[in-house]
Design brief:
single chain, alpha/beta, Rossmann fold, two-stranded antiparallel sheet, 12 strands, globular, KaiC_dom, ATP-binding, P-loop_NTPase, ATP binding, nucleotide-binding
Length: 248
């Protein structure tokens, strides 16, 4: 199959699909990495929300860094009513925070305390099947490792996660931290980028005494793409990428 025959999944992020031949390859796992504050969670949620809103594709969000109710409230600033699509069965949010901090969860979908890797993956699989999800977000990998107490075995955890995602044929975004990407360190553990089939870096660059955001596609299998830095903004409607923009 040539790359022109690859089924594509629209990202819902204006400007991005123009850079990756129309969208992510269907069924692929994409790592979105970058320092704190670059917009990784917004990027990931936009992928799921726009999938439900524009393309009638259900999606699951596994939130491991903030409570589901906080995520819903924050996304309303972009006009994204996650609850609306949850009620319609097009979005499911898995609360992975409450039990980790010893609080009961009021969410329909919530991870239990003490889950091992297999239990974690089985639960995600069940929720994906419940709403027949086509898209999945896990935010974030370091939080998986900490929550499951598996930091020493993170490569094995990620390989298992990636395998089950590929088996489900679901298109996924995993987020991670990159503390110093300019020195070549793209992820917290140094293995995440090798497991994923696509890697997108979000970062800052100083320009005119200001920090500007840029996006770099480091890897995207089955896809022809440029290795350039493209400016992007977080607007009142979400992330917008400027394919013809220049980064100096």
């Amino acid at each position: 199959m040539s790359r022109y025959d690859v089924a594509r999944v629209k990202t819902g992020i204006p400007g991005l699909d123009d850079l990756i031949e129309g969208g992510f390859p269907k069924g692929t796992t994409v790592l979105v990495t970058g320092p704190t504050g670059t917009g990784k969670t917004t990027f990931a949620v936009q992928f799921v929300y726009k999938g439900a809103e524009l393309y009638d594709e259900p999606g699951v969000i596994v939130t491991l860094e903030e409570r589901a109710q906080d995520l819903r409230r924050e996304m309303l600033s972009f006009g994204w009513d996650l609850k609306k699509y949850e009620d319609e069965g097009k979005i499911a949010i898995i609360d992975g925070v409450s039990s980790a901090v010893g609080l009961p969860s009021e969410e329909r979908f919530a991870l239990e305390e003490g889950l091992n890797v297999e239990g974690f993956l089985r639960y995600i699989y069940r929720v994906v099947k419940t709403i027949d999800a086509k898209r999945l977000v896990v935010d974030s990998i370091p939080s998986i490792a900490i929550r499951l107490r598996e930091e020493k075995n993170i490569r094995e955890v990620l390989l298992k996660l990636n395998t089950i995602l590929l088996e489900m044929g679901i298109t996924s975004i995993l987020t991670t931290e990159a503390e110093d990407p300019k020195r070549g360190k793209l992820s917290r553990y140094g293995v995440e980028e090798y497991v994923a089939r696509g890697v997108i870096l979000l970062d800052f660059i100083e320009k005119d005494v200001e920090l500007k955001r840029y996006l770099l596609i480091r890897k995207m299998r089955e896809t022809k793409h440029a290795m350039k830095k493209y400016p992007f903004e977080i607007t009142e409607d979400g992330i917008v990428v400027y394919p013809s923009g220049e980064i100096y």
